[in-house]
Amino acid sequence: MKKRAEKRRIVLVPLPLQGHITPMMQLGQALNLKGFSSHNFPDFEFVTIPESLPVSEIEAFGPVEFLIKLNETSEANFKNCIAQLLLQQGNDIACIIYDDLMYFSEAAAKEFKLPSIIFSTTSVTHKVCCCVLSKLNASKFLIDMEDHELQNKVVENLYPLSYKDLPTSGFGPLELYLELCKEVVNKRTASAVIINTTSCLESSSLSWLQQEFKIPVYPLGPLHITASVPSSLLEEDRSCIEWLNKQKPRSVIYISFGSLALMETKEVVEMAWGLYDSNQPFLWVIRSGSESLPEEISKMVSEKGYIVKWAPQQEVLEHRAVGGFWSHCGWNSTLESIVEGVPMICRPFNGEQKLNAMYIESVWRIGIQLKGEEERGGVKRAVKRLIVEEEGACMRERAHGLREKIKASVRCGGASYNALDELVKFLNTE
Ligand code: UDX
Asked: Which of 122, 187, 332, 400 is the most exposed place for a label (fewest CB within 10 A)?
């Protein structure tokens, strides 16, 4: 590794949400290990882009509108931040790497003639879907989505993806979502794209994107294997590991819906009853401030399970007692589960989660997809299928097969390992 004094810095611009901060920090750590610098933490320096949207306005926006406004209003503030950094610490910035939802960053890179790279923290298939969506004429597409024949049609060159799989709902009006997609897939003057995936998971989508973008695409994931770094915004309750230590191998179903998803109390209660009736031990993350479980039900289910507000998820998934993961299918959770060879029950909520669930169930065949809210009988049935029955054992076997392929891809000479090396070479020549 080069001495710190010789290291060049990289500016990373994450979307300030847990599921996006984590992969960005991991990417920073991976590059740091390859000789690029930052300062503390132990090698990161944090700079805040001043807020540009009044809190009162933020509260009135839906998520998509918020992101569009955030990009509109952050451009000037971010340019000031970069100007300050260049002034204080000299011209040693090798590159600006930004989350594809923080596309305002590109203007500063252009103004200060700095190379820039887009980082897509979700799957490459999701990126491809955004490209497809932004190509479709927005108003025509809105009408066509009523057409059942079209919905079941495979998107050209993208088998097994059909039009109904394109992520379009859950975050407010479709028109606005299409507007955001258009911005997200606009590569502007960026020199390359980094994706937190690996070729053995999504090879056809990767080829599609490479052809479409005509700039280098680096699939160097899953980054949490290459460069683990503490990035949790909430305090992890480690007592669940002691509880897991007392459970039988592969008997526990771990339940977590990431950092954002919200459920109605009615669904939580049905889940609690279904879990209780399944007779399988379970570890359940119920975030504070989210859905709540009535006190008496909480007491009752605690006989068979363990509830925490936030878990050390990767450690949980690694644990020998865990036999399945009931997930909302956020991309980080999906990768973390596959890497530990844990099969899944999929309960997608919004964004690209439905797309990830489709891949889990139908492409990699390592999980069961729920069609939406389940009553207690459906919950019990899904848990049994995954943890106890032969069907679940086959999914576990396939998940283990994928795990081996992924681990090979991050080892010296593997596809993701090579992609990271190529990225570093690219950064050193920019
Ligand atoms: C968001 C979007 O919802 C998701 O669709 C997108 O793919 C990424 O951004 P989030 O919903 O938080 O993310 O889900 P996910 O991507 O799975 O990330 C959650 C992260 O929090 C994971 O890294 C997971 O390990 C961590 N986590 C979750 C914990 O550490 N403890 C917990 O108890 C729950």
From this structure: 400
User: Which tens digit of pLDDT belongs to each residue from 325-349?
Assistant: 999 999 999 999 999 999 999 999 9
Domain that holds residue 363: 239-388
Whether a cis peptide bond, with omega within 30° of 0, leads into 42 is: yes
| Closest ligand 1 atom, residue 351 Cα | 5
Q: Does the interface predicted TM-score (ipTM) exceed 0.85?
A: yes
C-alpha to C-alpha distance for 263 and 285, rounded to whole angstroms = 12
Q: What is the pTM of this model?
A: 0.95
Task: Decide if pLDDT at 142 tops 80.
Answer: no
- 298 shares a domain with 253: yes
- Averaged pLDDT score across all residues of the chain: 91
Same domain, 365 and 384: yes
Whether residue 361 sits in one domain with residue 282: yes
- State the Cα–Cα distance between residues 151 and 330, nearest whole angstrom: 23
> What pLDDT does residue 407 have?
97
Q: Which residues contact 172 (CB under 8 A, 6 or more apart)?
A: 62, 63, 64, 65
Q: Which residue has the higher pLDDT, 215 or 66?
A: 215
287 Cα nearest atom in ligand 1: 33
**19 CA from centroid of ligand 1 (Å):** 4
Same domain, residue pair 88 and 148: yes
Residues with CB under 6 A from ligand 1: 17-20, 22, 122, 232, 256, 258-261, 285, 310-311, 313-314, 330-333, 336, 351-353
The alpha carbon of 333 and the centre of ligand 1 are apart by a number of angstroms equal to: 6
Dihedral sign from CA coordinates of 419, 422, 428, 430 = negative
Please name the residue ranges forming H helices in 192-254. Answer: 199-213, 223-226, 239-245
Give domain status of residue 331, yes or no.
yes
